[in-house]
Amino acid sequence: MNERRCAICLLSGGLDSTTTLAIARDEGFDCYCLSFDYGQRHRIEVDAAKRIAQRFGLEHRVVKIDLRMFGGSALTGNGIDVPKDRDAGEMTLGIPVTYVPARNTIFLSFALAYAEVVGASDIFIGVNAIDYSGYPDCRPEFIRSFEQLANLATKSGVEGTRRIAIRTPLIEMTKADIVRKAAELGVDLGLTHSCYDPDDSGHPCGRCDSCLLRRKGFEEAGLADPLLALP
């Protein structure tokens, strides 16, 4: 009998994390989805994550933490505007104000605790080091370092019963590659949400870095973004 393979999948509700979840499922993993309501201005992404987990028929937990108490980001702090209408060159100049301090470190730490409880050896996260907005916690060196930490900081790692792997299937893919992969796996990207600054109805602004990168990905993939067809 084959040993059960289970994984924790960080699911924001966006294009990247949803494609990552689909890849994990395609590889045969029994997935546990983990999302965060952290006080983000685009909290609508949590609703998207719920829809996606439900569509896949998976267990889904939403952890509520309030990173607004620290601020320091356009996504969690008052008085910091989300950048709009930036070109690709501008997006790669320094770390943008949409970077949430230590966010992926925090999220991966929760995922690590969840992995220990359910006996998962793999944690999937949809970070990308090609078409991204300059976040330091999306780089391969960060992922390698966290994986090392994970195996030093856990009971299973110390006892040698299970080694934790941080899986980043999108790390070297362009946004167009990601869109194509999602289409190949039959993902309904109309369920996803990418915008950093949606309006009160949840419609994407179309001008923030995340919206522009999403648009670029669909255009280069030669596919239509189903979100643009929504009323």
Provide an overview of this structure:
By secondary structure, this protein is of the alpha/beta class. It has a single domain, classed as Rossmann fold. 38% of the residues lie in helices and 11% in strands. It contains eight helices and five strands. A five-stranded parallel beta sheet has the order 3-2-1-4-5, with helices on both faces. Strand 2, helix 2 and strand 3 form a beta-alpha-beta unit. The protein is globular. It starts with 5 loop residues before the first strand and ends in a 10-residue tail after the last helix. The model has no long low-confidence stretch (mean pLDDT 93).
Number of self-contained structural domains:
1
In the CATH hierarchy, what is the class? Alpha Beta
Query: What is the chains' assembly state?
Result: single chain
Q: Give the overall silhouette.
A: globular
* Helical percentage: 25-40%
Total E-strand runs: 5
Indicate the radius of gyration in whole angstroms.
17 Å
Give the biggest sheet.
Answer: 5 strands, parallel
CATH architecture: 3-Layer(aba) Sandwich
**Unreliable residue runs:** none
CATH topology: Rossmann fold
The fraction of residues in strands falls at: 5-15%
Looking at this structure, what is the CATH superfamily? HUPs
Q: How does the helix and strand content classify structurally?
A: alpha/beta
Major sheet: arrangement of strands: 3-2-1-4-5
**What is the mean pLDDT?**
93
